[in-house]
Design a protein that fits this description.
The structure is a single chain. By secondary structure, the chain is of the alpha+beta class. About 30% of the residues lie in helices and about 20% in strands. It has helices at about 5-10, 20-35, 65-80, 100-110, 150-155, and strands spanning about 35-45, 50-55, 60-65, 115-120, 130-135, 140-145. Strands 3-2-1-6-5-4 form a six-stranded mixed β-sheet.
Length: about 160
């Protein structure tokens, strides 16, 4: 069998744009049903913030965010209220190259006096700080690098790490 691929044809293909409009529609369906969501934050390779969203009945998927969609998601998890979004779901924020969106979200919770529950490091990885925020309609999970700077920041803000 002589199997050969024509890589010349593949060289010119464009990277497909992520179907965030479909991800947005799925998140809205989940919220309108009253699903409890599990969320983890991250940054795409193209420097867009996202939430990996899943529920008991829907497998996890990426949902690229802008500030309004991020606030709507957290508002839903805290209150159970669904907020309408009038913008274009295909437009998301762009982060700086070295910006860690997950860490920025975690700091927002800490700075606003929200209680996070931390996983003891002897249970998890000693190189990571794992925490979560349980809310009325969901839970946000954090897993950040265990650096001296991160530990100092959390301890300065009276977090029991």
């Amino acid at each position: 069998m002589d199997l050969k691929f024509d890589f010349a044809e593949l060289q010119g293909t464009k990277q497909q744009q992520y179907p965030n409009n479909e991800a947005h529609a799925e998140v809205m369906r989940m919220m309108n049903r009253g699903d409890k969501l599990s969320v983890k934050y991250g940054t795409t390779k193209s420097h867009h913030p996202y939430a990996k969203v899943e529920s008991k009945t829907v497998a996890g998927f990426k949902y690229e965010l802008n500030a309004e969609r991020a606030n709507n998601l957290i508002h839903y998890m805290m209150t159970g209220e669904v907020s309408e979004y009038a913008g274009d779901p295909m437009q998301s924020d762009t982060l700086e190259v070295d910006e860690d969106y997950q860490w920025e979200v975690m700091k927002q919770f800490v700075e606003n006096g929200q209680t996070l529950q931390y996983v003891p490091r002897f249970i998890g990885s000693p190189n990571r700080i794992s925490a979560y925020k349980a809310m009325f309609k969901g839970t946000i999970f954090f897993c950040i690098p265990c650096t001296t700077e991160n530990l100092d920041y959390l301890r300065e803000h009276q977090q029991n790490v």
